[in-house]
Amino acid sequence: MEILVVGSVAFDSVETPFGQGTDILGGSATYFSTSASFFTGVQLVAVVGEDFPAEHRDFLASRNIDLSGLQVVPGRTFRWKGRYGYDLNEAQTLETQLNVFEGFQPNLPGKFRDAEVVFLANIDPELQLEVVRQVRRPRVIACDTMNFWIAGKREALVRTLREVDILIINEGETRQLANEPNLVKAARAILALGPHTLVVKRGEYGVLVFGEHNVFSIPAYPLEEVFDPTGAGDTFAGGFVGYLAATGNFSEAAIRKATVFGSVMASFTVEDFSLDRLRRLAWPEIEERFRMFQALTAFEGLD
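RESULT FIELD:
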């Protein structure tokens, strides 16, 4: 089944200790869609300005991504500029220009309203809830958010979480949302708000998945070269939700396997700037890294 994603399409300017890129293709919905498109079709809802080049649109359309919901309006596309130090887990934001994204109102095309799998990328929780109201009979709704919305629009976010099945956020956001320093206690508090599954992204330390009665953990894939972590979390979400939608299986076992596929996709993204690594990625590479992940995490009983 296809995935409906609502989020941002942007231009990023990124500096890391290993290089830099200026006005490169980015945005939460862009990374998510490109990653998920390796598994299933994607319906993208976002907004860009008149400066959005045809080559980027052609790239997205070539990846099994339906652009019927990509609005083009007068003005400039959303821009973000950030810098990473040698601690690549957190970016320093240097500049944010919302531009046309500031007035974004997601209006789903008719055929998108029948989506069975929905991903609410990192946008205003009031807009996320508006998307939920437009979808007729979703089977699964997954959601992302960030510290800005947790601090500034907590009540709206809590209302949205009542409608969400899977929440995907990072470790700091988990503690902030629950107002609880202990990660396990924080997870339990968040699950009580509505989601059935909480996926906690921990950067180079891997991923923790909390269900109503279980916990699952995997490490990050060990890489020799990391160039740009921008979009890694959205790419993880794309692989995670993409696998679930492709199989139509949302069991605990499927969620565990989806976690590995999400981590696999994220591990490729950080190997280059923007979506450059995903542009040249082939399915056999994904399968091979998945098998390497299995070998990395498998062990037999200890004598």
